[in-house]
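Morning!

This is the sequence you dropped in the shared folder:
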Amino acid sequence: MPEAGGTGERRYLVLTLGSEDFALDAGIVRELLRPPRLTRVPGAPPALAGLANLRGTALPVLDLRRIVRPDLEPTAEPTRVVVVEAGESVGLMVDHIVAFSGGTESVGTDGPAGSGQRAVANGSGSARVLDLPALVAEAFPHRARASAAGVRSARVEAADETEAERVALVSFTAAGRSYALPLERVAEVLALPPDVVPVPRAGNAALGVAALRGGVLPLLSLPALLGLAAPPPGKDARVVVARLGGAETGLVVDALGPILRLAPDAVDPVPSALSRGGTTAVDAICRVDEAGALVSVLSADRLLEGSTVTASSARSYDPKSANGQTGGATEQVVVFDLAGESYGVPVGAVREVLRVPETMTRLPRTPDHVVGAIDVRGTVLAVVDQRRRFGLPPGEANPRRRIVVLEAGGAVAGLLVDGVSRMLRLDVGAIRPAPDFSGDAVNGVDRVATLDDGSLLPVVDASALLAGTERSVRAATKRAAGRTTGTDASA
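The structure's back. Tokens below.
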């Protein structure tokens, strides 16, 4: 550190925070940006403004104003983000940039904590020199230290165990009826694109083609394929990208239904009396609940038989590539929405997705984020309000809300979310460990995926997400089960 009275001249980036000037050593400054689009991190302290996509990398953006002067609320929007190297690349929100300038440090006796009480001449005045590593360490004392490799290993093991026990299906509605396809035959589920190019004389079921990641995806109306009358697709319509005949084809359905994980004995073959005289596009019938709800499981191999359309080879499907046996390894996630933000969770940890019942049983002596319990085929399931869990403002009841049932590390719980919008198959090369600035190790966000449109998708680890509530959820479930059987759960 320079002695009082000054030493040799160095270069600094001078910036303003509120009404004061501060300086950063120019040697750690990498670039200056206009404020980018930010993805919020749930449970993060106020100093972490969010994550930004910097050339495919998730860049943590810190609000330097809240770090240096946490006692003052920023009064204006930041005008620049300074990308610096502080052990890792970090973006710093600042009010204004004054200049890059040379100067001589001097040691003072006052200054905010973390500034090192150093100053550098700045024209007619002076700017306090920020000790960035000390500031970051003070603002984020609880940065996670867990090994990302260990977390990924636990996640894969939990997913493999869950997959082996149940039949996984993606359900949807077509012409008002419930159908499903095996999860392994569904690449992703997307919103219906606004620009669909019709193909003349392609058949009644062919709606046209749409652009998808540098290629074209054929779109077929599932009701028309099944010989059912249906109105044009509505606002809830989805495109189920299925692997049919060795290629990916988009099946346009009325709406996405629950993701089902059923016991093998809940899936029955089609009765032989219904398949006499020819083949059928239905492979099996599954019993979803004790009320007798049935879902027809479609055959991905026979769905196009007897129709005038064939699967396009424009987006061919290589099973080895999809399973990660070649360089094109992918990971499938379910995307849920909370307070205008989207989050992904590995599909292997999702047992099913349920509609929210009209009533839920309140559970006494549980945390505020445990909003109640529901009966799922004879099993009492505790439901966690994920908005409360992430520290977000409460939401309003609406038909889009869903309960995502997660199972990982021996824990099971339902997450109440604003909606489940789609399923995505992500290139593993586009998924990276999340910067560990969240300040809440149990918020579950351990990775961030960069999507094709440049946006970022936080990916949560089910084991970490459930860890913070496992004990209270188990106790609440035990009490609720005791009440349903007429026993005293506290005995």
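Headline: The chain is about 15% helix and 40% strand.

More detail when I'm at my desk.
O.
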